[in-house]
Predict the structure.
Amino acid sequence: MIKQISIFLLPLLLFPIGSLAYGIEPLDRAVINDERLVNLSGATLGEHIIVNQQVQITAKITNAQEDNQDFVYIVQIKDENDFVVKLGWISGSLTSYQSFSPSLSWTPTESGVYTAEIFVWDSLLYQDALTRPAILEIMTS
């Protein structure tokens, strides 16, 4: 009887519960890459932009699961003093392995160095990260 119990418990020790629930690690349920600034036409801009120039902060997000996944694409922009100057989000749903490139608009009103943090969560309510955040450094003049 003891052998049967230890054989049953061994898989639980080797595979954490979170991995069993999703089949993959929680922060690997989505992939975020190709984060960049684009203009209103979708053309890629450098990391240096002009004050009062409207830009879009975009990234490609991919559902890395066999199941559909609700998501919230969140962009938080901070100034040099770590003060949040912009916070916005878009929500949606991705089918199995689907990719999508959402974008949020921002117009800097002062010159300086800004940091855009891009998050992908399952919802605003539960705030469960689907992937690690992406970071963009932005200089304005």
